[in-house]
Amino acid sequence: MRVVMLGPPGSGKSTHARLLAEHLTVIHLSVGAALRDEVAKQSPLGERIEATVAAGELVDTADVLAILETRLVGATGSGGWVLDGAPRTLTQAEALDDWLDDLEAPVECVIALDVPDSEVRSRLLQRGRADDKPDVIAHRIQVWQHDGGAVLTWYETKRRLVRVDGVGDVADVARRVIAAVERF
């Protein structure tokens, strides 16, 4: 199974992608973790990513795909994956779909975690990462509403999108996510 987990920042994508991957016994691929690893390496790519993320902007499509390429090829060969943190723009969705189609491993299901903006703000402020400042959070929510909406529409027209209520206890949301994938 090849699943993409989408939602606004702080919606629980990584948590629920990890839990779903465990349930499906496939690999969890977190773009956020991959980007943070690249930043920690202090490579030129990592420095560019760090500046972009600190400003609350989205990482360039080519950089995201470069980071994902090896990971997705390996995970596809091992039986499947749950990807969180990408695609974040329509351009990324189109490029990712084209690339995965070339691998003959298209996205099969896209889970969209629906979480209200007020809940997202609260979660991000509690999380306390360096880039989780009120002005950056507000900007990231605005970017998600604009760009994320286009990505959701893209997958909805391809009949791959399933919306899941992302508010509540982690175990309850996880059950909803697993049930959505199993119904798909």
CATH fold title: Rossmann fold
Number of helical stretches of at least 4 residues = 8
Strands in their spatial order, largest beta sheet:
2-3-1-4-5
Helical content class? 55-70%
Mean pLDDT: 92
Fraction of residues in β-strands: 5-15%
Provide the CATH architecture.
3-Layer(aba) Sandwich
- In total, the number of domains comes to 1
Ends: how far apart?
11 Å
Order of helices and strands: EHEHHHEHEHHEH
Low-pLDDT segments, ≥5 res: none
Query: Major sheet: size, sense and barrel closure?
Result: 5 strands, parallel
Specify the CATH class.
Alpha Beta
What is the 3D shape? globular
Radius of gyration: 15 Å
Architecture blueprint of SSEs:
Elements: E1 2-6, H1 13-24, E2 27-30, H2 31-40, H3 44-54, H4 61-77, E3 81-84, H5 90-102, E4 109-114, H6 117-127, H7 134-157, E5 161-165, H8 170-183
Helix pairs in contact: 1-8, 2-3, 4-5, 6-7
Any overview of this molecule?
- By secondary structure, the protein is α/β, with parallel strands linked by helices.
- The protein has one domain (2-183): P-loop containing nucleotide triphosphate hydrolases (Rossmann fold, 3-Layer(aba) Sandwich).
- Helices cover 61% and strands 13% of the residues.
- α4 packs parallel to α5 and α6 (117-127) crosses α7.
- AMP binds at residues 36, 57-59, 92, 129, 140.
- GO terms for molecular function: AMP kinase activity; ATP binding.
- Pathway: Purine metabolism; AMP biosynthesis via salvage pathway; AMP from ADP: step 1/1.
